[in-house]
Automatic annotation (TrEMBL):
It comes from the Bacteria. InterPro entries: Bact_HTH_transcr_reg (IPR050679), Chorismate_lyase_/UTRA_dom_sf (IPR028978), Tscrpt_reg_HTH_GntR (IPR000524), UTRA (IPR011663), WH-like_DNA-bd_sf (IPR036388), WH_DNA-bd_sf (IPR036390). It comes from Devosia pacifica. Pfam families: GntR (PF00392), UTRA (PF07702). SUPFAM superfamilies: Chorismate lyase-like (SSF64288), Winged helix' DNA-binding domain (SSF46785). The keyword DNA-binding applies. CDD domains: WHTH_GntR (cd07377). This is GntR family transcriptional regulator.
Length: 253
């Protein structure tokens, strides 16, 4: 048995309740202990989870108990599986709030493979609030693009973008909306973002593969061209367990 895996597995004992002090099933106690290790950085993103055998040896739990704990972490997106190579801790994505970047480009620079599951791509009339935010008249139309965004086949976000139909041909939108806007000469250069903590409703939970009531970040992005014209309104729901937004703060002089 791999000594490193056994050493890591043995650390879980510090986070398990004493025998008989918890009414939770053993698999839930083990899953909770592993979560704490991830939160404290003792198991880092991309690091292999201790094998079932090493966890069994360290805790004395049965294979069924250990496997149930691992499956619980997998369902919550805390780990991912590599066929034939075991389970690994899912990396937490940090996105700086000061950088205007699309999902595809952000994943590419992290070495992850970005993909999408299309929910809607259509042209139609804007809603009243979209007319105001995009500066459109009643006779103009918008392109609607709704997708589940994935990194290495794991759902991270739901994006619902709206842009003026004159800004981009819907047929040119393949992976990245920003690539299509750039090709048409309508790439935004600045944006305002509003973030709000929320809990996933049933639809969000199903699309993101998480439990109803799990934490999510609701984000609205309002992007502009260099001439000040509004070009994009995107409303997104990001998984709270996989996405952090980082802001650098400076003392005002």
């Amino acid at each position: 048995m791999d000594t490193m895996h056994l050493d890591t597995a043995s650390k879980v004992l510090a986070y398990l309740p004493s025998r008989g002090t918890s009414s939770d099933p053993l698999y839930m106690q083990l899953a909770s202990a592993l979560r704490v290790m991830v939160e404290r950085g003792e198991l880092r993103g991309g690091e292999a989870l201790p094998s079932e055998r090493s966890l069994m040896k360290a805790t004395g739990y049965s294979r069924v108990t250990v496997r149930s704990a691992v499956e619980d972490l997998f369902r919550d997106g805390l780990i991912y599986k590599r066929p034939g190579a075991g389970s690994y801790v899912s990396p937490l994505v940090d996105q700086p709030l000061s950088v205007l970047i699309g999902f595809s480009a952000d994943m590419q620079r992290r070495g992850a493979r970005a993909s999408s599951r299309l929910l809607e791509k259509s042209v139609g009339a804007p809603r009243p609030d979209e007319m105001v935010k995009l500066g459109l008249s009643s006779g103009e139309t918008v392109v609607r693009l709704s997708r589940v965004r994935l990194a290495d086949d794991t759902a991270l976000a739901i994006e619902r973008a709206v842009v003026p139909s004159g800004a981009v041909d819907p047929d040119t939108i393949a992976g990245s909306l920003y690539d299509a806007l750039r090709a048409s000469g309508n790439m935004p250069v600045r944006a305002l973002q509003r973030l709000r903590a929320a809990i996933a409703d049933r639809t969000e939970a199903e699309l993101l593969g998480i439990s109803t009531g799990s934490p999510v970040l609701h984000i609205e992005r309002h992007a502009f061209l260099a001439n000040g014209r509004a070009i994009e309104v995107t409303r997104s729901s990001y998984r709270g367990d996989r996405y952090d937004f980082i802001a650098e703060l400076k003392l005002e002089s």
